[in-house]
Write a structure and sequence with these properties.
The structure is a single chain. By secondary structure, this protein is of the alpha+beta class. The chain has a single domain, classed as Fumarylacetoacetate hydrolase, domain 2, CATH 3.90.850.10. Helix content is 18%, strand content 31%. The protein contains six helices and 14 strands. Strands 1, 2, 3, 5, 6, 8, 9 and 12 form an eight-stranded mixed β-sheet that branches. A four-stranded antiparallel β-sheet has the order 11-10-13-14, with no helix packed on it. The chain has a two-stranded antiparallel ribbon with strand order 4-7. Strand 10 and strand 11 form a beta hairpin. The radius of gyration is 16 Å and the shape is globular.
Length: 213
């Protein structure tokens, strides 16, 4: 199990197509929420949730590790210098519960921050993956079927802008994780599903797998 960050900062509705598929408006500034360190679970442990909570959706996301403290940074390019490593993660979402909470005007934590709601693959040095932050690609397959294709060129807010915006609100500390949001294609997981995440690197793809219990 990897060491735990002080916090996991997530971006909601960061791809227009994903916002549309859930019937959400396109945001005019980044939508931010957090997961606690206790949400983390390893890929080897697999995905599980209480069926009484309703459907659990997968959301595959490019995830960043902060290796330099970032606070009050206004320059997106300088903000990017704080990123030391990248990987792919799963922001697991209890969609039925989230929809109910949204209708009641209540916070999302029960649906987004429960134990086991965050999975992170192995960290890869940012230099091994990123040549251009607007040209990072990744995919998620379930049972060998392509479900999601991530392309940072399609982000509503580029990653440097996201980091600078976050740093105005709270300090990003060394070891903190930023999940940059999911592309379209989310859906409910089923028992026995096999998940494969692939991140395109400069010389080869990085591939990780997990499963639904």
């Amino acid at each position: 199990m990897q060491s735990r960050p002080s916090k996991i900062i997530c971006v909601g509705r960061s791809y227009a197509d994903h916002a549309k598929e859930l019937g959400n408006a396109i945001p005019d500034r980044p939508v931010l929420f957090m997961k606690p360190p206790s949400a983390l679970v390893s890929l080897q442990q697999g995905i599980s949730w209480n069926p009484a909570w309703g459907n659990c959706h997968y959301e595959c996301e490019l995830s960043l590790r902060i290796d330099r403290t970032l606070k009050g940074e206004t320059d997106p390019l300088k903000a990017l210098e704080a990123v030391g490593a990248v990987t792919l993660g799963l922001d697991l979402t209890l969609r039925d519960l989230q929809d109910d909470l949204k209708q009641k005007g209540q916070p999302w934590e029960r649906a987004k921050a429960f134990d086991g709601s965050c999975m992170l693959a192995d960290w890869v040095d940012v230099q091994e993956v990123v040549g251009d932050w607007k040209n990072v690609h990744y995919t998620l397959q379930i049972n060998e079927e392509l479900r999601q294709k991530g392309d940072t060129a399609l982000l509503i807010f580029d990653i440097g802008t996201l980091l600078a915006d976050m740093s105005q609100v709270f300090t990003l500390e060394v070891g903190d994780v930023v999940m940059t949001g999911t592309p379209a294609g989310v859906a409910a997981l089923q028992a026995g599903d096999q998940l494969k995440m692939s991140l395109q690197g400069k010389t080869h793809d990085y591939v990780w797998q997990t499963f639904v219990k």
